[in-house]
Amino acid sequence: MNDSSALYAFNKFGDTVLRAAFAMTGSYSEAEDITQEIFLSLHAKPQRFESDEHLKAWLLRSAINRCKNYRKSARILRNTALDEKTANTLSCEFTPKDSEIRDRIAKLPEKYSSVIFLYYYEEYTIKEIASLIGKNENTVSSLLQRGRKKLKTELEEEGFIYETR
C-alpha cells in the first residue's frame, strides 16, 4: 500500500468503521477517536490487502479490538451526554426507533453487540463473522441468538413494542 491507501480506506470505509465503533461504545466522541486511531495506524504502518473486502474486514476487526479495549478502560466510566447537534447528526439516517435500538445494542455486552452489529448493520454472514472475530460458527450463532434474546427482553421491559419483520 502507498501513502494514499489510508486515505482511500478512509473515504471508502470511514463511515462504516465509525458506525461500528459507535454501535459498540455508545459514545459518538469515543467512536470518532477510535476511528481516527485506526486510520492513523493504517497510515503509519501500511499493509497489503487482497481486496476491498479484506481491507474492510481488517478495519472492522481493528474497530472491535479497540472497542474492547475502550470498554475495559477507565474512560468508559466517564459518561457524557450528547449535545443536540451531535444527536441530530447521528440520527439523520435512522428513525427514532432505530436510534433507540442502536443505543440498546451499544449497551449490550461487547460479545453480543459486535456480533449483532456485524450481522444486521454490515450484513456479514455468520461464517464471515466467525472468521472476523476468530470464533467458531456455532459460537457466533449462539452469541447472535442470545444477544437478540437479551435485546428483546430489555426492550420489552422498558415498554418498547417489539415487532418482527
Describe this entry's structure for a reader.
It is a single chain. With 165 residues, the protein is an all-alpha fold. It has one domain: Butyryl-CoA Dehydrogenase, subunit A, domain 3 (Up-down Bundle). The protein has helices at 5-25, 28-44, 52-72, 84-91, 96-107, 110-121, 126-133, 137-157. Mean pLDDT is 80; it is low at 78-94.
Query: Class by helix and strand content?
Result: mainly alpha
Poorly predicted sequence stretches spanning 5 or more consecutive residues: 78-94
The count of domains is: 1
- What is the level 1 CATH name? Mainly Alpha
The total beta strand count reads 0
The DSSP helix count reads: 8
Instruction: Return the CATH topology.
Output: Butyryl-CoA Dehydrogenase, subunit A, domain 3
* CATH fourth-tier homologous superfamily: PhyR, sigma-like (SL) domain
The residue fraction in helices comes out at over 70%
Question: Helix and strand layout, with pairings?
Answer:
Elements: H1 5-25, H2 28-44, H3 52-72, H4 84-91, H5 96-107, H6 110-121, H7 126-133, H8 137-157
Helix pairs in contact: 1-2, 1-3, 1-5, 2-3, 6-8, 7-8
Short précis:
The chain has helices spanning 5-25, 28-44, 52-72, 84-91, 96-107, 110-121, 126-133, 137-157.
Task: Write a concise keyword list for the protein shown above.
Butyryl-CoA Dehydrogenase, subunit A, domain 3; 165 residues; globular; 8 helices
